[in-house]
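Hi R.,

Here's the chain you asked about this morning:
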Amino acid sequence: MIELKTPAEIDRMHVTGRFVAEVLTEVGRLADVGVNLMDLEHHVRGMIKRRGAESCYWDYSPSFGKGPFRNVICLSVNDAVLHGLPHDYVLRDGDVLTADIAVTIDGWAADSARTVIVGTPAEEDQRIVRATEEALEAAIQAARPGNRLGDISAAIEAVATGYGYPVNTEFGGHGIGRTMHGEPHVSNRGKAGRGMKLRPGLTLALEPWLARTTDRIVYDPDGWTIRSADGSRTAHTEHTVAITDGEPRVLTRRDEELS
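And the predicted structure, written out as tokens:
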């Protein structure tokens, strides 16, 4: 079932979204050569506890996972792109790190992800990060009343293919509100003018993710971490967005994106 939110309920989701944005800003600040992923995990646990938020990931047990997820943030490095299980790994110069987090505050969820480059960036890594960011902005601009779900998907695909990157359709965006995941599914590939009509009050987590040279994925033995099948590097960018009567409202926008 798709639940349309009132303006007041979207305001409450925005409260959660601002906190999620703060967490990802902090992770981006802390991610540096020599930092262990578990240090980032425990730092975020502390932020969540102090804020009185609840992690959407802790004990998360979807059909594709291996047992409950017992962490509060997904941390994916280099060829890992989704559901990266934090583990004892020390970041190295040039690593590509994706951080993805969802929490609830007072019963309302927000979900966001960003990819940062640790230390010295390689040009090709910067390029794929930029592609996901531009694809997300295109998706946000398509998230307007009267448009259709396929317009969002087509906008993402157009940017990705314009950069020459293949697009996977197994995982994409999703509805969000009182829970982290809900209907509808938002594919990162699609046809404009197709699918359900977008209406004010619909809230979506839009999340383009790409690998350099493949649209196929493989799972780590941990049952969670998803990697590009050919080992090529990846990037993932996500925001929680509300469709309104006017401009799309990005509920997880970080301050640095506004400057």
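The chain is about 30% helix and 25% strand.

Let me know if you need anything else.
M.
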